[in-house]
Amino acid sequence: MTRNSVFAAIGGIAILTALTLPAYAQATPDELAKAFEKAVIAEDKMAIAKLYTPDAVSYDPGGKVHRGPNAIADSWTEFFDGFEGFTVKLTEHGSRLQGDTNSAWGLWTMSATPVAGGDVVTWNGRYMDVSIKTNDGWRYVADHASMAADPDAASASQ
To answer: N or C, which terminus of the chain has less Cβ within 10 Å?
Structure first.
């Protein structure tokens, strides 16, 4: 087999693999975090739902618990209805990958403009999440977000 035919075969396998995986499959935990950011910026609840396992649980900054992808996606409805022009940034401060399970933690910042008008609102907080590698790529099993009482204190406690 020539070098070009080996590269062609590898390229063909990569294309077939890409075609058999769902369009939303995330190959790494980092890609999962980036997909979450993109879904929030796009205000796409269905894209958010696809990032979670069927038995996932999410603890939101307000203290509510949401179970399952649809409930987690629906928890964003009021937020997306009340604000527009989202930006979001997850800043990972640490993670531990053990086999097909990853845990990560860090700080998040999100900004948006009220639909009713007014200045941009910025929120800051902390997060912890657990994700697993599934046949459909990496998915969140659990996440917990909390608000930072003082953005300067959150940054200082890294």
So the answer is: N
